[in-house]
Write a structure and sequence with these properties.
Layout: H1 22-29, E1 36-39, H2 46-54, E2 58-63, H3 66-78, E3 83-87, H4 93-98, E4 105-111, H5 116-120, H6 145-151, H7 154-165, H8 170-183, H9 189-199, H10 210-221, H11 224-238, E5 239-249, H12 252-265, E6 289-291, H13 301-306, E7 314-320, H14 326-329
Parallel strand pairs: 1-2, 1-4, 2-3, 4-5
Antiparallel strand pairs: 5-7, 6-7
The structure holds S-adenosylmethionine (SAM).
């Protein structure tokens, strides 16, 4: 049954995190009465709150960080029965929702990466500006960044730093890390940042030399690109015809994955692969998504002035077609 439209008490503001491209994401999803939406990256709840405020809809909110979801309790009280908080990964969205009886939804929003709260909390170990344990695990479990830098081979570290950080000096940085850990293992963020800064000079645009290596380690520790690929497949499975996918990415590695997926799934570039049945590929009749903008949408100058973190944000939106998901057609292989 469609929920009553409760707006409750005014929203508690979270001064730490300003949602990026919020107006654009909500306009794309165009929440409707009785609609069911998934916010796969709850964070500080900016998108979830805006969806709940825009229409008498229901929102399923996922975050892999148990701390993020604590904030969600406030929204759950404010919008009784309309917001469901789920700790888990958006890469598992189809399984997480179907286990709760939800198999079709009207919109999916993904706002990739880490939140300002995670970066600003030195105890989480994401920042190269504040000293803290070298952790970087969004979920607070599994292999930490310290485990990675202290145990992988020089070649493995170099590949990670080059691939996920697009760091030209990856080999030099990896060599310096391996030399420094012989002296003593890494446990703190600032020691790692200092070792990197000793190897890589600050670029003319003033970007801290540790930026790219820290990004690489964060992506690797949290398998962020694998999550994105699985999340896109999950959205394809869950979205009803006419449902909207909105993905905000923050660097070219992420945006490339979204762009390539939508191209492949929009009919223009459907080709047989080892994962798809040849008979299903190559026709626009089998396309599962229709991109709604040719180019990614970026922030306005006004948004960047208020929130510099929005500078590199890129939003891609697409509408789900009635065609069955490729996973369903390929017998679960895609
Ligand atoms: C950029 S913030 C989202 C901010 C949110 N849109 C808002 O308005 O407050 C990203 C959040 O997504 C979470 N996250 C990142 N990858 C995830 C994944 N694969 N599954 C679930 N949550 C994820 C992070 O823990 C973080 O809280």
């Amino acid at each position: 049954m469609c929920p009553a439209f409760t707006t409750g008490t005014p929203a508690p503001s979270n001064a730490d995190h300003i949602p990026v491209l919020l107006a654009e994401v909500i306009a794309a999803l165009a929440p409707k009465a009785c609609g069911v939406y998934l916010d796969g990256t709850f964070g500080a709840g900016g998108y979830t709150a805006a969806l709940l405020e825009a229409a008498p809809c229901v929102v399923w909110s996922i975050d892999r960080d148990p701390e993020a979801l604590l904030l969600g309790e406030i929204l759950a009280e404010r919008f009784p029965g309309r917001v469901h908080l789920v700790q888990g990964r958006f890469g598992d969205m189809a399984a997480l929702l179907s286990a709760r009886g939800i198999t079709g939804i009207d919109g999916v929003a993904l706002d990739l990466g880490v939140s300002s709260m995670q970066i600003d909390d030195r105890s989480r170990g994401f920042s190269f500006l504040r000293d803290g344990p070298l952790d970087m695990r969004m979920e607070k479990s599994g292999r930490s960044a310290a485990d990675v830098v202290n145990t992988l081979s020089e070649k493995e570290l170099s590949d990670i730093i080059f691939t996920y950080g697009e760091e030209r000096h990856a080999r030099r940085v990896a060599r310096a890390i391996v030399e420094a850990r012989r002296e003593r293992p890494f446990s703190r963020t600032l020691r790692l940042a200092d070792v990197i800064r000793a190897e890589v000079r600050r670029s003319q645009d003033g970007i801290d030399p540790a930026t790219r290596t820290f990004q690489a380690l964060r992506i690797y520790v949290n398998d962020e690109l694998g999550e994105l690929e699985r999340g896109l497949l999950g959205a394809e499975k869950l979205l009803r015809p006419g449902g909207i996918l909105a993905v905000v990415s923050f660097h070219s590695l992420e945006d490339r994955i979204v762009k390539t997926f939508l191209k492949a799934r929009s009919g223009s570039a459907l080709r047989p692969s080892r994962h798809t049945l040849a008979s299903l590929a190559g026709s626009s009749a089998t396309a599962t998504f229709k991109p709604l903008s040719r180019r990614p949408i970026g922030p306005s100058d006004g948004e960047v002035a208020i929130n510099p973190r929005a500078r590199s944000a890129r939003l891609r939106i697409a509408e789900r077609t009635p065609a069955p998901s490729l996973t369903a057609r390929a017998g679960g292989l895609a």
